[in-house]
Amino acid sequence: MQARKKYVLLGLCACCWLLFFYWGGGVQLRVLRLLTRHRGEVVRPWPNWTDRAFLPRYAHLDELQTDPGTAESPRQRRQAWTAIYKDSRCRMETCFDFSRCRRRGREGFRVYIYPSEKNEHISESYRKILTSIGESRYYTSDPREACLFVLGIDTLDRDQLSGQFVPNVDERIRGYPLWNEGRNHLIFNLYSGTWPNYTEDLGFNIGQAILAKASLNTEHFRPGFDVSIPLFSKDHPQKGGERGWLVRSTTPPRRKYLLMFKGKRYLTGIGSDTRNALHHIHNGKDIVSLTTCRHGKDWEKHKDARCDHDNLEYERFDYQELLHNSTFCLVPRGRRLGSFRFLESLQAACIPVLLSNGWELPFSDVIQWNQAVIEGDERLLLQVPSTVRAVGNERVLALRQRTQMLWEAYFSSVDKIVLTTLEIIKDRVFSHISRNRYMWNSLPGGLLVLPEYSTHLAHFPFYYLGLGVSPGQEFTAVIHAVSPLVSQSQPIMKLLQVVSKSKYCSQIIILWNSEKPPPSRSKWPPMPVPLTVTDGRRKTTSRFLPHVAIETEAVLSLDEDSVLLTSEVNFAFLVWRSFPERIVGYPPRSHFWDPLKRAWGYTSKWTNDYSIVLTGAAFYHRYYHYLFSHYLPQSLRTLVDRTSNCEDILMNFLVSAVTHLPPIKVAQRKQYKELPSPQGTKSVPWANPEHFNQRQECINTFASWFGYMPLVHSQFRLDPVLFKDQVSVLRKKYKDLERA
């Protein structure tokens, strides 16, 4: 009984306490109000952040509204990103339909571009991107064949304050029957977000689409799925682009200025912290760090006490002069993480020093950026001078050389940026036949290494030297035959005997391109090596098809009327083994620039200067057959087949574009010349005056497609030891080369 009374008493006490707090609080507040009113004071809640009556005591309202750096916490930014990109965990395995790409095996990587609507506004930069895709070997006009889809809507500039902004993208893409929540779609973007925060918001939901974006933040980058691309200007060239500024083996590796920057300074807002502090490292001697606040319409309203002095100092130095004469170039972030300074520094061989925390560098999946740039920390700006001073000369030269390799391989044109993006995605789709890091980060670059040919480094001629690999000791002769066999005394018969006697000859393939059917095997002379006759289908480019019958690394390409000695063949082959990445042969030609016609010219005059070695008698690696057939566009190969001309010039263009080196001419007993056609056969093409005019046109057409002139002039010729020296011919290894 006593226990029950105790519990009842405790329950009553608890109820009293609850009633006291519930009603007592209100009574206390009312009493407090009465007291304060009595004293003549007004009680107000904590001021709102936009309340102008209170905030001026602490800071100007405009400053708070334009300083997004303190407006959002990292958690808020992540939440905002998740709200925008609901598929932020996308990977190729979860958000990509591989079956669309494997319907046709290796040929399954095709890209479809949605047709643009009538009166659709497309920026110059996006037009260049679409042109690059449309002219690539991956383009298809049939969406049923496509593995990847690209929007016809311009998505490059998603800043709502920009004149290039395209509204209602979300509604339009949802109307595409193939959109499928963005799966297998590729979206390009250079600018996202708007003032003041410049977030990653594109203004529409990309869904499961792959994002090829500039200024990507590492927090938002989806590894193995998205592609980080560089920020480039509307004036960036469509094709080719300017070469890098570094001369080979430049010494000394350092330039006049150690470190430089010249650019805008932001007084407030995102990106202002770093650029406002750059003046601290400027010494006006070997470190030049210049900023100006003279930009924008209202810069004078917001200028600070340092603006006038900075503007005067800014005008003292020329940007191009600094760029050409600086060893390191600061690349601080702007409003966004990326900057135009990045590509400018790469081209100028000015080692980029990055001050952009969180920036996912362009093509980071495949490029080893630590071999080309120095990544700094925005918070440790004052340590940058001592850091770059500590870099040794050998390292400086290596970094500068790597900037040139990357610039010319991936960044010098919109074409290269777009094709690199596509090739990265293609390597992900066909991971079993993809390039490795070495291929992407060494000459000639990943775009010129086709993994369908091979994924082994030792199968490519330009890797032999670095791997310490020697090319094979045999070659395959491929003879291009266009004349019917009417006599045993035709030049091709003697040529077969000469080539087959070479101790290095493994086999001979006759590519039959005559209008008449090939003769039976009994019509051909007996030879010590296998002889194969293959139908060339009367196409001039068939001589460069990757014929399965070619088993050796070296190919000796011959016209049917080539006049050579066995010793000449042997010597040229030994020279090729020392230069397996180049064309090595006899008949030289050259190109030149005609300032009056403002066009390239072609000449066959015999001079000491040459840039072309005709493939009518030349050695090269068989990989160039594959590259010729699968890398060059169909339009160029069609031109060659239609005119039955210029295939040798096109092959020289291709090899020089890969190596950046000229071909090699070797000594020859007699000058290479074309013989008159036998009776009863068609006249040779070079007897036609139109033949030379066609070659003039070809060289300009090829240069237009490459976007620059890849051919390189040379005066280098290799002769045998003791060649034409005043010693007995009997003492010479290649004695037949001197006999008339």
Structure description:
The chain is 31% helix and 13% strand. It is globular and about 125 Å long. The chain has 22 helices and 21 strands. The chain folds into three domains: 89-241 and 413-446, Rossmann fold (3-Layer(aba) Sandwich), CATH 3.40.50; 257-406, Glycogen Phosphorylase B (Rossmann fold, 3-Layer(aba) Sandwich); 475-669 and 685-718, Spore Coat Polysaccharide Biosynthesis Protein SpsA, Chain A, CATH 3.90.550.10. The protein has an eight-stranded mixed beta sheet with strand order 13-12-11-14-19-15-20-21, sandwiched between helices. It has a five-stranded parallel beta sheet with strand order 1-2-3-4-5. It has a five-stranded parallel beta sheet with strand order 7-6-8-9-10. The protein has 740 residues and is α/β, with parallel strands linked by helices. The termini are far apart. The longest helix has 38 residues, at 2-39. GO terms for molecular function: glucuronosyl-N-acetylglucosaminyl-proteoglycan 4-alpha-N-acetylglucosaminyltransferase activity; metal ion binding; N-acetylglucosaminyl-proteoglycan 4-beta-glucuronosyltransferase activity. Glycosyltransferase required for the biosynthesis of heparan-sulfate. This is Exostosin-1c isoform X2. Pfam families: Exostosin_GT47 (PF03016), Glyco_transf_64 (PF09258). Its cofactor is Mn(2+).
